[in-house]
Amino acid sequence: MSRYIVMFSIVLVASIGSVQRATSQEDIERTLTRAQNLYYEARFKDSVDLLLPVDAALRDRPTQGGLTIGVKLQLALSYVGQNLTREAKAAFQEVCVLDPEYSLDSSQFSPKVIALFNDAKAVFEKAGVFNASLLPDGQVIMVVDQRVGSTGVGACYGDPMP
Asked: Of these four, 49, 66, 111, 161, which has the most CB atoms within 10 Å of its CB?
């Protein structure tokens, strides 16, 4: 019996360590810093995996715009690191939605990143919206806290929502 308790404790501790759930602003900031470190270690997928739950949690907290931008920017950079241009562009567009005046410093980012961000921003500025078709399947699309659609198979503009 005690052997099972010890094994359960080890599994629980490992699970908590590998899936960092961001609950407070401090937790989110620590997770973002860890994701940035993973990015600089060229562990792009690990950075994305760490940030996706934080990104999802921040969708429920619209008041934390600065942190949300940081998370989405880091997601975009990590997607670029994996050559996932479509996902990176979608994340950059989300940054533009949150802050239409946001720009990247060309002394801090590669020309490839700057060009991709500027392309995403141009699409946003031209339409005043972001291209939902660039989002991964299964993403919920919200406008001013109201669900307006979703991405994926069968999701088309103008289709009535269930």
From this structure: 49
Residues 152 and 87 in one domain: no
Tokens at residue 92, please? 């950059």
Q: What is the pTM of this model?
A: 0.66
Q: Which helix (H) or strand (E) holds 143?
A: strand 140-143
Tens digit of each residue's pLDDT (9 = 90 or more) over 10-38:
544 444 444 444 468 899 999 999 999 99
Could you give the CA distance from residue 39 to residue 113 in angstroms, rounded to a whole number?
14
Q: Are residues 35 and 106 in the same domain?
A: yes
Domain that holds residue 93: 2-130
Non-local CB neighbours of 7 within 8 Å, separated by 6+ positions? none
Distance between CA atoms of 155 and 72, rounded to whole angstroms?
23
